[in-house]
Amino acid sequence: QVQLVQSGAEVKKPGASVKVSCKASGYTFTSYAIYWVRQAPGQRPEWMGWIRPDNLNTRYSQSFQDRVIFTSDTSATTVYMEVGSLRSEDTAVYYCILGQWLGYWGQGTLVTVSS
Amino acid sequence: QAVVTQEPSLTVSPGGTVTLTCGSNTGAVTSGHYPYWFQQKPGQAPKTLIYDTTNKHSWTPARFSGSLLGGKAALTLSGAQPEDEAEYYCLLYYGAGVFGGGTKLTVL
So what's the pLDDT on residue A65? Predict the structure, then answer.
């Protein structure tokens, strides 16, 4: 069955970086893009962008394109999302999602930014 | 950036029908915005119910349907069940995705 399993919760200080992983299984890894969405506590979700593991093309939301990098490791069937220059407003649950139909969601990774 | 609007809250009686809408400040919502609908219950990840305006996933209950209505995207729930009480978000694409503010649906 299709699964996206994300790395565990992180606590970071302002100005630091965080890298969240999303390990995919149950389908051909290079067939579909992986999307990233985050949700701050009590807020609406926020679309961050996507990466295509087959050609490593990426698309970033304007809100994130200066601080976020998506990467992919086909041998590990894992996609990564790194956010730099963290600030308190980046405290959120970060989700990876499979495919343009946004069918399968990872369990989410809580990133807490606090001094 | 575009702003996507939803009703903040709606109430439906068990067995009743309710329509949630999703509008855009840039004009009418069309199929070219590829509207999505998500259901989120407290403490859980969102679940995608509808994609590309009308398409359902295998797990989407038949009582949910998506459409375009009066220049907006719409999610209609026919025959509401207590377990449908949740927050519902829509997502529209403008090259990049923008989520609406969500509708808190109460089944009462």
Answer: 77
